[in-house]
Design a protein that fits this description.
This protein has about 325 residues and is α/β, with parallel strands linked by helices. Helix content is about 40%, strand content about 15%. The chain is globular, with a radius of gyration of 19 Å.
Length: about 325
């Protein structure tokens, strides 16, 4: 009995290694430098997210990599010790907002007050005020075009909140796909997307990274490398629950029945794909890459509805 379990464990580990190597080959055309990012949020309303976040910290340590962790305010309030550990292990702590609602659901005054409290909480936990922000659902959309000015006024240096394509959850079709500067001077780091017919998908993160078949993932890597690599804004993203294969189905009001099922199933490929992405590649925090990313960013001013966008640089 012991031998059988040992063989099974060995075969599982061996299979994971092969899966990681296959993933590394698919990601090989991507630039050598990127940023591994995590949206830290309490997906199931319990402590599971903390355990999975620790797994991600261990994964980065094994790869001698540094990442940027966007921490939701409720999570920071519930587990400030974990926030301190993220910073102590050499990673950037940034803000994922004061609640997990789409930006268009907020009003400027309430958003301003909530973000001030969230930023202050992270500063108290780590000793350093965060310079980065990521909107829940990448929901910096035309309906929330007032947000960059609020972020800049609050002391943030960059945002990573625009999905530059149509998406059923949130998106800004027509926004630049490379890093750009808002009129207020805030740097925006859009989600890396790759073309599939008339659509563009965020292929290096979350549910997309888990569900894309290997041949499609390889195709997207090639297309992004040909079309957008010169911009230098490569990054991946994941959530703690993306690794949690033993979690039960969580029925999320924001995703509906089908969306909740898709977010729950097929979590097995996440770890080897993240390991493959890190293999032979250097992950630096957004904060460390900020001068270079800012230097290469053009300006972009969203125009009023019905008018063309204005771009320069």
């Amino acid at each position: 009995m012991t031998v059988t379990l040992g063989n099974e464990a060995y075969q599982r580990a061996s299979g994971l290694t092969r899966a990681t190597r296959r993933a590394a080959r698919r990601f090989a055309p991507l630039p050598a430098e990127f940023t591994f990012t995590v949206d830290v949020e309490d997906h199931a309303g319990d402590a599971r997210a903390a355990a999975q976040t620790t797994r991600l910290l261990d994964l980065l340590e094994e790869a001698d990599a540094r990442g940027t962790f966007f921490v939701l305010d409720a999570f920071a309030a519930a587990d400030p010790a974990l926030v301190r550990r993220i910073a102590a292990r050499g990673h950037e702590v940034a803000s994922h907002g004061h609640d997990h609602r789409r930006l268009a659901e907020h009003r400027p005054a309430a958003f301003r007050a909530g973000m001030a409290a969230a930023r202050d909480r992270l500063a108290q936990a780590t000793g350093t005020a965060p310079v980065g922000y990521r909107a829940p659902y990448f929901s910096l959309t035309p309906e929330a075009a007032w947000v960059p000015e609020e972020l800049a006024a609050a002391g943030f240096a960059y945002s990573s909140s625009v999905l530059p394509a149509w998406n059923p959850m949130a998106g800004w079709p027509g926004a630049p796909r490379r890093p750009f500067l808002w009129p207020c001077g805030l740097l925006e780091l859009p989600v890396p997307v790759a073309r599939l017919g008339p659509f563009r998908l965020p292929f290096l993160g979350g549910m997309y990274l888990r569900w894309l078949p290997p041949w499609r993932l390889r195709q997207f890597v090639g297309r992004w490398t040909r079309e957008d690599a010169a911009g230098g804004g490569l990054w991946s993203y994941c959530h703690p629950y993306d690794l949690d294969e033993t979690e039960g189905l969580v029925r999320r009001a924001d995703a509906g029945a089908f969306g909740s099922l898709m977010l729950w199933l097929n979590r097995g490929p996440t770890l080897p794909r993240l390991q493959g992405l890190l293999h032979g590649r250097r992950s630096e925090t957004f904060a460390a890459r900020l001068p270079a990313l800012r230097a290469g960013a053009g300006a972009w001013a969203p125009a009023p509805a019905g008018q063309p966008m204005l771009a320069a640089g």
